[in-house]
Design brief:
single chain; alpha/beta; 20-stranded parallel beta sheet; 6-stranded antiparallel beta sheet; WH_DNA-bd_sf; ADP binding; NAD+ nucleosidase activity, cyclic ADP-ribose generating; Apaf_helical
Length: about 800
Amino acid sequence: MELFNQHAFKKEVPDERFKNFSLEVVNHAKGLPLALKVWGSLLHKKSLTQWRSTVDQIKKNSSSEIVKKLKISYDGLEPEEQKIFLDMACFFRGDEKKVVIEILESCDFGAEYGLDVLIDKSLVNISKNDRVEMHDLIQDMGRYVVKMQKDSGKQSRLWDAEDFEEVMVNNTGTKSMEAIWLQRIQKLRFSKKAMKKMIKLRILHIGHFVPDQLFALANDDSIEYLPNSLCWFDWHGYPWESLRENFEPKGLVHLDLQYSFLHHLWIGTKHLPFLRKLNLSFSGSLRWTPDFTGMPNLEYLNLMECKSLEEVHHSLGCCSKLIELDLDGCKILKKFPCVNGESLESLYLYGCSSLEEFPEILGRIKPGLEIKVKRSGIRELPSSIQYLTHITKLDLSSLENLVTLPSSICKLKGLMELNVSYCLKLESFPEEIGDLENLKELHATFTQISRPPSSIVRLNKLKSLTFQKSEVGLEDRVLFVFPQVNEGLSLLDVLRLDYCNLIDEGLPEDIGCLSSLKMLNLSGNNFKHLPRSIAQLGALQSLDLSYCKRLKELPDFMEMQNLKTLNLSYCKNLEEVHHSVRFLKNLHTLILTNCIQLKRFPGLCIDSLRYLCLRGCSSLEKFPKFLRNTIVESEIYMLENVMRELEFPLTFSQEIVSLSQRVFSIVLGGNKFSLQQIPSWFHHRGMDKSVSVNLPENWYVPDNFLGFAVCYSGRLADYTTAHLIPLCDDDGMPWKLDFFYLPEGRGRFSTIHLFLLPLASLWDTSKANGKTPNDYGLIRLCFKSKIKRTNFCLRYYVSQS
């Protein structure tokens, strides 16, 4: 009763006048919550007379089927609300609210208001991710209404492929048909006049239709009639060369014929005053576009991957409301008409390799314009580009024929992103590049640019600057020189100069002025020393000096207290790591792979370090000491002892990983190590995801016990849990070891994994309740891994000898 009252009266206690009617409805619902919600919402705010009539209708339905009982809620809707509800029940359950509203509004429905009514009557709800949802029984009720129409020859909607084929073959469609929505159809048989009677059809959606080789593609065999009443028309894989000439859908809002076999849409001009979206993408045989004169409200035109498209009709310039124009992948398109820029937000010409001239954009440009002409055949930019003042993003990447940029490009005051990467012939930026006062990203990777103009440091809103080249590019011996910073580039976050052939004089002495810099990549360069001021980069979080094979010494890291990642791999002349690295309290990744001259290594701050790689450091004789207390020193001793027993020299170790403050792991793999080399004292073995080991009496010896050594093969576990189980039957001491993704996935698929688990990681004095470790007689470890079988062994130490 309370549930019904909440929906009928918006309170738990009903008006006394309605009490008897309320009891009748609740009894008739037989406890079904959905019926109580729907009928309660239906009766909300109705008069006593209306209550009496409505309750009588509910009771008259003698069928026990709830869908029939619920139909009364549908009968109480206004005609347009009924249409909206049936569309949602038949087609749109689970779809995005935004898309559903767009489709319904194309049919000239008051979609927002209608949806609110349906929500208020508990027929529809909107999910957390903004999708239209309804109860299974509500959907069944809606489809039941439509199926009842079929019995009277007035079916208004089709959603089943078999039913659709029956109508198309037998020509049984009627003027009552309003909408057809098929998500996928494998075959299509039809009568040529199958749709001639469907004069009120407003929605036709055929998705993912792939005609077989026997399908007749000749225009004479196509459907002779498409309803001119259509507002929303989708046919993915439309199988004929054109639409029928008698197709004149004056109210059409949306036309999507992607993946079609069209050669042309139609000949001549059609008056489509309401058309907003035209999608002919991936129509590989399309040769030319229609005349756009009759489409004054066109907003979106998608011709992506129309690889046979030769010409875009010159009338496109008349479309003043065009927002997005996409011609990516139109490979043989040579000429492009003028475009009206009054509403334009996006122009995509990616991969138009035959297009040699930059598009002409007319009219007052709308702020926020994005232009991508990547991999097109454009040879130069016109000086008139300066008048496109509201461009915010300009992608000129991979223009193989572009040699220079006009100085007029520097007058684009609104430009925020400029990309000229992979313009392999581009040798320089204009001297006035610093005038782009709002530029935030500048990408010039794999170009011939070797001396950025000094004005570049005036880009004080720039956050990302990239000039990286490839290792192959070092062969040209052109030296890269970065200008003096002069306290500019104050907001720069990312600077990439990898493989730019930098020598000692190539980096500015005042590079330390880049006070906001967080990521600096200098890998693959030829300098021997770094500017001293680099030590002042206090905001730096990632420094990559890998493959700097001539680098002999590192800077003082003392002021880089935010540094998290330091990559020194393949620095083959590096003999030592600066002692200040031990004070980097946020450092979690340190990579020294194949630093073959490295002989000395300072202590590290174990609190933060999670990944240390010393693979191939053949001159390093001692494992680095970690600056922690005696217990941690003992744990490291354990690791060295294990490696010694494995007869596995440090030179061959692949990864050394610190997985928590007091737990250490080593990953052993490759051809140097196999399961047979696991020493015999790893005597507890298992073939499952968990192992339990009984501990001997008085196994814990204070001051001498160091921990447990665990070794297993297979994939690196996502995490491991360990429990000390007491001798009596109560809760144990839990511990969880979180593994993490190693840099570049290293070690995750290695053969052997070894980690050391000290008692301090398992023992929580606050939870001991007076017990000692010796009151615990069993240790259990559980692995979570994508590999079902995991081999491992366990051992604990009782002394350091």
